[in-house]
Amino acid sequence: MVFNQLKDGVKWPSSIQVCEVGPRDGLQNEKTLLTVEQKVELIERSVQAGVKIIEIGSFVHPKAVPPMADTDAVARRLKRVEGVEYRALVLNIKGLERAEAAGIRKAKLTVSASRAHSLSNLNKTPEEAVRGFTESAEYAASRGMVLSGAISTAFGCPFEGKVSLEQVLSVVECFREIGVKELSLSDTTGMANPQQVYEYGLRVKEQFPDVTWNLHFHNTRGMGLANVVAGMMAGIDRYDACFAGLGGCPFAPGASGNIATEDLIHMCHEMGIETGIDLDQVISIGRYVQELIGHDTSSFILKAGKCSDIVKA
Amino acid sequence: MVFNQLKDGVKWPSSIQVCEVGPRDGLQNEKTLLTVEQKVELIERSVQAGVKIIEIGSFVHPKAVPPMADTDAVARRLKRVEGVEYRALVLNIKGLERAEAAGIRKAKLTVSASRAHSLSNLNKTPEEAVRGFTESAEYAASRGMVLSGAISTAFGCPFEGKVSLEQVLSVVECFREIGVKELSLSDTTGMANPQQVYEYGLRVKEQFPDVTWNLHFHNTRGMGLANVVAGMMAGIDRYDACFAGLGGCPFAPGASGNIATEDLIHMCHEMGIETGIDLDQVISIGRYVQELIGHDTSSFILKAGKCSDIVKA
Questions:
Q1: Which of B198, B206, B263 sits opposite A10 (nearest CB)?
Q2: Across chain A, which distance is largest between two alpha carbons, in Å?
Q3: Which residues, 6 or more positions from B93, have their beta carbon under 8 angstroms from its beta carbon?
Q4: CB distance A221–B301 less than 8 Å?
């Protein structure tokens, strides 16, 4: 039989960049507090597995997020590795100063795209919240630190339902004004769908071609990897994921968390998309995380194994 | 099919057809046996919710699949509804005769695309297995019954790993030779990935444009809905799903089952794709199924709720 070339041209990226957010977005929700040593071990094993970007924690008030209280100590203990980026979440200039003191060169500022959510949380619109980062941006620039921005509830929000593309673009504009060139659209509440991800992804890339775009999905409603596929179709090649699929959503207790690093990498490798990461090592990190926190998680590959595992030799 | 064309050429269907396979592919794996009345109730509630195609059971040897032993009784009890198709799985002419006697007009013949799997199970190649249906096809034609074909392990198989597109096309060819015009590619073992689904979907449609194509996915490795999205991109608009996400994979005990009907419909409606099905009714059927079988299942929406559920009024 002779086959014709594919007619329609959906193009997958030949490789994607996976950012491990487990030490921050995963562990911040866990009741079991890990030690500094355990966190450092997880991060260094991720580096060993080939992960090049790791969100190692957050410099926020220790009482607000107790599992993140030791981020300074974790950051100080990490071996710096050529080509590996350790980034941390900060909320303001205080966090930025702590990050710098601990040797972290890349900080992520976060803002909610939802006007209602932002007003309720901070009594500021999203745009005002971003403009409030101006001093932080100047501080970072003067110290040679790099800032990225995370736009949370970029697709949907419990306070106002679907978040419009116009609203997202307006927040992006503000981030650009303060000089931030790397941005993430985050589906914190698991409300994004593939059509929306594709549409928003295409438009932000079109409107802001000089921005480096990241996507961050939770698998709350089963659409996590479908959203990754939609993001790839829109030409975005940087994705957050979390070891063992930790993390959750305060609005849906018991629901699935972040997409699992092992699930994302498994899918990519099956699709012929390179990640530069050793899947078996990531799986073994995931199992270790489950041991440390003492409960089952929403990872698929930790349950079912890789496709190749069930193939008889 | 009408497509909403987006700028860079990704086309989503404006509507899809969802086939409820729960009464067959879901319940056949459950330890708790439902009564005929309970099965009829589930099927009739699905019809009420707007489902137009339901796989009501299988006419196989009662000892081989005890939960399906009462399919004759179920079929006899069902009210016929204009525009609703009740289909059943059969393995041979005996099953077809039982289906006919019970008033079922549409039967699904199944064959494994994997040579190694088919030889091990039936001592026949997939092509020989399909040709073995010739008598069934003639019987069906003479009785005015309609046959569809399911090609299981169409993407991957524990006996031989990835199943090649050439192998799948060769099985399709045999089905066409015996006059079957509706076919399903089934990812029984949860080994399909979006790149492969897109590629196989495009090619089978191109090569056999007169066939009505269906896709059947399990969420074993988290790629279920991602594969649906890839199938839609290839222009396929008929998908199997199972209430509450029942079903499993003998090769990965404890893993997720079929994609859940409520998860699929929820994603489609969020994407603006019509299904003609009432999501709330489907969710309530899913909850009832969980009650009947007495355990939790791998449905996301039954855990997390719809996106709209968390939006404050």
A1: B198
A2: 67
A3: B135, B136, B139
A4: yes
Give the residue from chain B lying closest to A299, CA to CA. B222
Tokens in use for A57?
């924690």
Q: Which CATH architecture has domain A17-304?
A: Alpha-Beta Barrel (3.20)
A contacts of B257 (beta carbons < 8 Å): none
Q: By CB neighbour count within 10 A (0-12 exposed, 13-18 middle, 19+ buried), where does B304 fall?
A: buried
- What contacts B288, CB < 8 A, 6 or more positions away? B42, B45
Whole-number Cα distances in Å, A153 to A168, A171, A203, A233, B193: 9, 12, 17, 21, 28
Tell me phi and psi for residue B209, to 5 degrees: -70, -20
Q: How far B201 CA sits from the closest chain A CA (Å)?
A: 10
| Catalytic annotation, pick one of A174, A249, A268, A307 | A249
CB contact under 8 A, B220 and A311: no
Q: State both tokens at B292.
A: 């009947």
CB contact under 8 A, B223 and A225: yes
Residue of B nearest to A229 (CA): B226
Residues 6+ apart with CB under 8 A from A280: none
Distance CA A267, CA A263 (A): 6
Helix axes A165-177, A194-207, angle to 10 degrees: 40
Across the interface, whether the CB atoms of B256 and A304 are under 8 A apart is answered yes
Nearest chain A residue to B166, by CA: A1
Walking along chain A (313 residues) 10 residues at a time, the average pLDDT comes out as 44 94 96 97 98 98 94 97 97 96 97 94 95 97 97 95 97 98 96 97 96 98 98 96 91 87 98 98 98 96 95 80
Q: What's the topology of domain B15-304?
A: TIM Barrel (3.20.20)
Q: Specify whether A249 is catalytic.
A: yes
Q: Token match 């890839």: residue?
A: B230
Q: Does the distance separating the beta carbons of A252 and B305 come in below 8 Å?
A: yes
pLDDT in tens, A190-243: 999 999 999 999 999 999 999 999 999 999 999 999 999 999 999 999 999 999
Domain boundaries, chain A: 17-304
Closest CA of chain B from A96, distance in Å: 33
By C-alpha distance, the chain B residue nearest A11 is B195
> Looking at beta carbons, which residues of chain B come within 8 Å of A270?
193, 195-196, 223
- pLDDT tens for chain B, residues 1 to 313: 333 444 456 778 999 999 999 999 999 989 999 999 999 999 999 999 999 999 999 999 999 999 999 999 999 999 999 999 999 999 999 999 999 999 999 999 999 999 999 999 899 999 999 999 999 999 999 999 999 999 999 999 999 999 999 999 999 999 999 999 999 999 989 999 999 999 999 999 999 999 999 999 999 999 999 999 999 999 999 999 999 999 977 777 878 899 999 999 999 999 999 999 999 999 999 999 999 999 999 999 999 999 999 898 6
Q: Contacts of residue A191 in chain B, CB cutoff 8 Å? A: 307, 310
* Beta-strand pair B212-217/B182-187: parallel
